Fold this protein.
Amino acid sequence: MFQQDRLSNEITLFQKIKNLDYILLISVILLSILSVFVMYSTDGGEILFHTKNHFVKLAVFFPLMIFVAFFNIKFWHNFSYIIYFIVILLLIYVSFFGIKSSGSQRWMDLYLFVLQPSELMKIAIIMCLAKYFHRIKIENVNSFTSITIVLSIIIIPIIFVISQPDLGTSILIALSGLIILWLGGMKIKYFIYSFITFLISLPFIISFLKPYQKLRILTFLDPDRDPLGAGYQIIQSKIAIGSGGLNGKGFLKGTQSYLDFLPEKHTDFIFTLFSEEFGFIGSVGLLILYSIIIFRIVRIGAISRSNFARLFCFGYAFAIFIYIVVNLSMVLGLLPIVGSPLPIMSYGGSSMLATMIGFGIVLSAKINHKQMIA
Amino acid sequence: MIKSNSGIRKTDVINRRMFIIGAAKVVVFVGIVARLFSLQINENKKYLTLSDKNRIREWKLPPTRGNIVDYFGNVIAGNLKVYQLHIIPEQVENFNYLLVRLKNLLNLSDKRIARINKLKAELKPWDSIIVSENLSWSQFVKINNYLYDLVGVKPVMTISRNYPFNDVYTHVLGYVSQPNEQEILENEIIQERFVPGMKIGKLGLEKRLENHLIGTNAIQRYEVNAYGKRINQLEHQKGEQGSKIRLTVDTEIQKACGELLNEKAGSISVMDIYTGDIIAMYSSPSYNPNLFLFGISQDEWQLIRNNPLKPLINKTLSGLYSPGSTIKPIVALSALENKVIDTKFKVKCTGKMELYGQTFHCWKEKGHGWVSLKNAMKQSCDTYFYEVARLLGVDRLNITAEKFGLGKKVLGDYFDNEKKGLFPNTKWKKNNLGKGWVLGETLITGIGQGYIQSTPLQLCMMTAQIANGGFAVKPKIIVDSNPISYEDAKQSMESGLFFDANSEELIDKKLFKNQRNIKIVQEAMFASTNERFGTSYKSRIDDPKYQFAGKTGTAQVKRISKRERELDLELEQIPYKDRDHALYVAYGPYVNPRYALSIIVEHGGSGSKAAAPIAKKLFKLIIDRHDLRNKQSNFERINV
């Protein structure tokens, strides 16, 4: 084991570059390029604020991904808990000193850009739980202590995020955490029991929701009840996607977005614009690109020797999957509107930062897939 | 369990569970693709339509009203290009500066400026504000010269209603103006085609024929953004002008009527005695309908409203007058038809008649002596007609009078201000006044005074029906889809039965029992105008081409007191309000008659002095235009 450690430490820069997963890398690059073009379209076919900023963020965070990848996976394993705690501290910080905007307090000003710690938590929770399940004996997974600990790891950040308030991100954090519990060997019956409990307590949960959140659920069930108010976003989004047809209206020709009918077209509803302009073919193409990325991440997890890397990759692949599903279901009118960005495509620094760090760790796992971690 | 196995077992668990997740992922992605498929492929049409609905906004433009032409095709209500000035606030750099410039250039009032500022606050910045609805050509040129300095100002050319003959046709056509809310709600077609700035008929035929005249909107399609701002124009759909309406009226005669009644209150109606075509229908004084197009000014409106000659009243249709002696042909006819009198029947006129202690005066104080029907009619002897009425009774007189159109609307529902007038009988008085009929009332009904009330058009129709030999005519002012020539009308009339194409039934057109009686009345009317001592002898035309027969009438507007009768004041000495109305009904030419007319001059004094001379001037023109009119009859046919 010692020898293994030593060997992996001796991997040269050249070998690191050689061991990168190029299919994943190319897919990410393709996605990034596509995202810049779509952002250009949201700016009405001009290089304006969003296009510029999006490009700059890609230009900074893409190298950061490679930088993260060049750290040994063991390093990320070692720092998982610390990173988790740092992000918790950041969440505490924003809950007191964060920037307020449109009724919620979830950002901190870093001068260069505004950071949303809850986005980082999406990665941190996977790292933290992956490390926990990596270290714990399989026999103890379902012990009372361990269940208490893992639930605490999930619930603590969620409390902070939900109180921001940010329902969308907290759901994504919870789902990312729960998937590691599942992968880590938690008994199926616990999941079934909790799901039943969740269903039973659903009316109580709904009664605790904020009025605007209740409205979103009602709107989801019947968007036409208030077509110019609460239902406007989802109706316009469906119109945009539906009118795209097989081939789409063409790049820069999406009338719904060009004429400002689409809300939030830079961020949560970016897929709507993409789908209007590129149609069914383009949308399925984008899904295939995402599928390739998810598949590559799963593959890297599967070839990893350490359970930490394996759990992280599987967890992260699922997280990416769930981001996409939640976002697309929302814009397609399959789920109520919860704020959730589409990875890489959506405008937003923190989300991109977290996603790129995630890819970086996955690539680090690829480079060091033979690395054993005690 | 061995420690190293624990790691392997854990890996197995992870892999197994990952496999389950992987399968779930595939299912979910397939689900999303299915949803995309259903939206983008299956329901593509639906959403494409919705997307177009979103982005395409239609702007309706005011429809162009159909023209109204006279019998000869002259446009009497048309459309004119007008120049307007619009401001588009979002293009204006300095709004206040612009207003100051415009105020100086166009002499805008402070009130107008305040109104523009108010509109600016109410409207969206890209909606245009109408500064001036109707610029004169010189103002339009001025604005165009200074356009470089007037950023955000748009000179616009549009179409507006125009009445080229100004006040000549006001009471026939009415006028158009901006509709009020109720008018929009009441008419579905207006509701559908309404756009701000559109004008609708407010009165007369413009109102009655609204649905034919209105036309369809031109439609401009624009692409708009989510806030409703126009981005670019897509297409233009032309509107259809409203139907053209051809009237039976003759502008030359109508104009002459206006000139003849200049500065008098009164009315002239001229009718074709066979076809029922209304050749002229003028109510005096009139007013200029063009004033209403762009909103009449308060001063001008007050001037029209407060004019003591009451220009707003259409006297031809809503003016109710005692017919006076013009009723005498009907009284005579009724008496003849009922065999109460014959041509030899004579009455001695002593200037008055006593009945139950009440005195009924003849207009001629000294009396006419023994008079027969012809002489009584000729000199308009009241005593004779008192006696005839007494013998006849009001109920029999009423039957004849109503047959000839008195007490009924002449044009039916074409004008909602038309009054039906009143021809009394004993039953009417019992029902409406609750009192029994008094014989004295029969007497004054016999000379066209008392309860009896008629419109000038009724008197015209009455005369027409005597003139054509006693046949019913159907008066009309619009040339309908099957215009009948006067020969055909005459022929069908003289056959006594008429096939009405609209109701598909045979109508008995005969209004008499014995046509000889009509002839007697005609001869008496001829004598009245063309024989010495006739009341309108001075207004006769000897040329047989123009020779006409008529009956004067002088309607009292108040009871004449004994003192006034003794004074025998000249017209100028009586206050205007108390002067008699002058009436005249006539038809001509006497041989082969064609046209009937009625003239009323309010407070004009006696019929022979004030009304009959007008007929003399008019008949020449009417008959001179007869040939022209005959040639015109197969002009275009218009469906209404």
